[in-house]
Amino acid sequence: MNAQQVIEQFRATGVQTCFHDRHINPQIYAGLNGSNWSLKDYEARGGYQALRKILGKDGGEGLTQDQVIATVKDSALRGRGGAGFPTGLKWSFMPRQFPGQKYLVCNSDEGEPGTCKDRDILMYNPHIVIEGMAIAAYAMGISVGYNYIHGEIFEVYERFEAALEEARAAGYLGNNIMGSNYSFQLHAHHGFGAYICGEETALLESLEGKKGQPRFKPPFPASFGLYGKPTTINNTETFAAVPWIIRNGGQAYLECGKPNNGGTKIFSVSGDVNQPGNYEVPMGTPFAKLLELAGGVRTGRQLKAVIPGGSSAPVLPAHIMMECTMDYDSISKAGSMLGSGAVIVMDDSRCMVESLKRLSYFYMHESCGQCTPCREGTGWLWRLVDRIHRGEGRPADMDLLDNVAENIMGRTICALGDAAAMPVRAMLKHFRPEFAAMIKSDAASTSATTGQAA
Ligand SMILES: Cc1cc2nc3c(=O)[nH]c(=O)nc-3n(C[C@H](O)[C@H](O)[C@H](O)COP(=O)(O)O)c2cc1C
Ligand code: SF4
């Protein structure tokens, strides 16, 4: 099947994405069929009950701001944008008594290679994000929010705008929501496809209409965010988890996952599997189970390695990965990161030098150029890997590569520098003989030894 056919199949059936029965206890993707995204459908699935609950519109007393934040803390929800920062704790950093404007921002930039979960949430269940944001804004005393949506997926932006219109017309957004004294205005904004605009401060710059380049931190967005005002930023999936937590309680969410890693997580499984797609499973699900859900490694092939959390996450060899469970703590203990949950599966036909060359090119291309170690270092990394891949590598190149990567890490304004360096160091740590073999011989013969098709 060529790329165009895959896209057509995706559009027609969604089989490559989230419409399959191979999720485990899904909360965000539950009941979706590709066409039931509207307000009426969402309400039929219990939508907006959590917002009604906190505002006391279903007979209860409602929840205070502190109670909402405490519930989210109890749930052990960790930010789904990459760093896994505890969401309730982040919400408690918002200076609620600040007298001026405060902002809430949803990060739907989703540019991490391998990640494609947020676009499915926005396309097929947009109201869950709107409700999650309305609850978050209530908890932090915020009256204005923005959803920054990746620029190259315009149909997703249009779908979200349509859902916003529905929510406004039904009184779930706007002034005096459901007759209460709580008001929240939410707007959509689309970027233009730069990966760096997913970094939260670059996103804020872009939202302000400036060049999307990260800011120095501190100050952090909680004190100096959008237009210099206190701002909380969370990922799309993070907000999408909130309605379930409020409806069912923090403890129930925590128990869906494992301690310190509450709830379910959506994993975008791609690469050498039979059924790539988005899979929502409880935190702590064994990687072997996730692989099985995705149809296993391509027929006739063996698992070689996995990048468990998007292209920035260090690669792990098969034997380590098969022992891991899919949660922040287990993957971190194994030496990588759960990141955004993009699981890139590589079988024994993959050449690691070529894979790293592709990754390094991406980071070189996406560096915003503000700081020297990243601007220059990402180019050095790519040129070194390219030289090795062309069969022109020198014996000292492996150490040089590691040294350049080491000197980028921790010396840049934002984490893109680390994201470029970590895959290099992990590839050398786990697959050094492949690099050495390519330095000794030419690229073609090394490809043959790794089993890669010409
Ligand atoms: C280079 C770079 C790209 C990023 N891209 C995204 C992204 O596309 N989506 C996202 O939610 N977070 C992204 N992040 C993380 C954000 O800066 C931020 O931590 C996140 O949006 C916070 O939300 P959370 O607490 O819900 O995870 C990126 C970070 C870096 C350094
Ligand atoms: S680390 Fe790279 S992307 Fe981040 S600010 Fe510096 S140059 Fe820009």
Describe what you observe in this structure.
The chain is an alpha/beta fold and 454 residues long. The protein contains 19 helices and eleven strands. The protein has a five-stranded mixed sheet with strand order 6-5-11-8-9, with helices on both faces. The chain has a four-stranded parallel sheet with strand order 3-2-1-4, with helices on both faces. A two-stranded antiparallel sheet has the order 7-10. Helix 4 crosses helix 7 and helix 16 runs antiparallel to helix 17 (397-408). The two termini are 19 Å apart. Residues 442-454 have low confidence and may be disordered. Bound molecules: flavin mononucleotide (FMN) and iron/sulfur cluster. Residues 196, 214, 367-371, 374-375, 412-414, 416-417 line the site of iron/sulfur cluster (SF4). Flavin mononucleotide is lined by residues 79-83, 85, 90, 107, 109-112, 196, 198-200, 233-235, 238, 414-416, 419.
Topology at a glance:
Elements: H1 3-13, H2 39-44, H3 49-54, H4 65-75, H5 87-92, E1 103-108, H6 117-124, H7 126-140, E2 144-149, H8 154-169, E3 185-190, H9 200-207, E4 231-235, H10 236-248, H11 250-256, E5 264-271, E6 277-282, E7 285-286, H12 287-293, E8 303-307, E9 316-317, H13 318-321, E10 325-326, H14 328-333, E11 342-347, H15 352-366, H16 372-389, H17 397-408, H18 416-440, H19 443-449
Parallel strand pairs: 1-2, 1-4, 2-3, 5-11
Antiparallel strand pairs: 5-6, 7-10, 8-9, 8-11
Provide a brief overview of the structure.
The protein has about 450 residues and is an alpha/beta fold. It has helices spanning about 5-15, 40-45, 50-55, 65-75, 85-90, 115-125, 125-140, 155-170, 200-205, 235-250, 250-255, 285-295, 320, 330-335, 350-365, 370-390, 395-410, 415-440, 445-450; strands at about 105-110, 145-150, 185-190, 230-235, 265-270, 275-280, 285, 305, 315, 325, 340-345. Strands 6-5-11-8-9 form a five-stranded mixed beta sheet, with helices on both faces.
